[in-house]
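ping. complex inputs:
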Amino acid sequence: MRADAQKNYDTIVATATLVFTEKGMDAPLDEIATRADVGPGTLYRHFPTREDLIDAVIKSWIAQIEAAAHDAVLSDSPAREVLLSWFAEYVARISRNKGGPSKFTSAMSNPQSPIFSKCEVLREANERVLDRFRVEGVIRADIDSLEVCRIIGGVAMVADQTGLDELTTASMLGVVIDGLLTT
Amino acid sequence: MRADAQKNYDTIVATATLVFTEKGMDAPLDEIATRADVGPGTLYRHFPTREDLIDAVIKSWIAQIEAAAHDAVLSDSPAREVLLSWFAEYVARISRNKGGPSKFTSAMSNPQSPIFSKCEVLREANERVLDRFRVEGVIRADIDSLEVCRIIGGVAMVADQTGLDELTTASMLGVVIDGLLTT
DNA sequence: ACCTGAACACCGTTCAAGT
DNA sequence: ACCTGAACACCGTTCAAGT
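pong. complex structure:
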């Protein structure tokens, strides 16, 4: 990539990160281009779709969720407690930017999506945590990680759209967890 | 209301019903005005916001949910079975038009919304069903109907956005129900 | 009192002209 | 090879002019 192209690419991603934080993942691309001091065509050349841009923005932090999953796998606290903080963590990550829960949860079921592979990282982290408890026999074995991601994603979408606080969200997650536990 | 105004009002609502069915509740208002043979200003005069229009459209069927709730209250099938078909019914109603789950579930937590009172009808129907099982002691008493509407609404939103089939949706509802049951 | 439709604003998307 | 920005399309919203 040419030096000026690389510079524009980096500036656009940095600006998008900022604008997504301020206004959510549905923020006008126009504003991103303007604040990055590039023409709209430049943004489109680098990122043909909004999801391509989202993909570049989340690249810097999406893998961090694996550490949280790792903690959940190793923790010796009660299952319900571990799952509650793990799911809360999951929700917090995909809700980092407004509009995130909707984007991630939809893309997870769509292999064509530019951010599908990033969603797989989320799902696999979840899979690892669920696997631990499946082995221990404390949660149902007939619900796969995709389905769990969808249900938790649904809770996150409602919380995101409605602006619910963490306590209310945790209460909803508690219901889902009780539905997963066999005990 | 003047005769011509009344006629326009009725035509707009009828056309909106059609367009919402075809393209969902986020369909362009423009198309509704054009197909109803009125100017955009006429649509805005009668319905200042999209939600005002939605309110008029759903008026004709929103109360039907009470009959389904009534059936659920009287049914002598096992609780899990009754709740599953009730929640499936609830999801089907709010998913009648694409984009519906998101609209209803958001408005339910916002008393300022023009469709808030319609959402109350949904919530109260749910309340009646939940009350029956609370009295019987088969479901948790610490989760109110608003919270249940939110969780089920979240499932409906995911299903709506992702285009999930009824079986997959029912499976997710099953998890939520198991989380509500005390047995 | 109500309707019309031109006009404006906003935003996504394309592409001819430039470097 | 890449960038610019004018231009177009689309859609929501307003309002002066009409009936």
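The first helix of chain B runs from residue 3 to 23.
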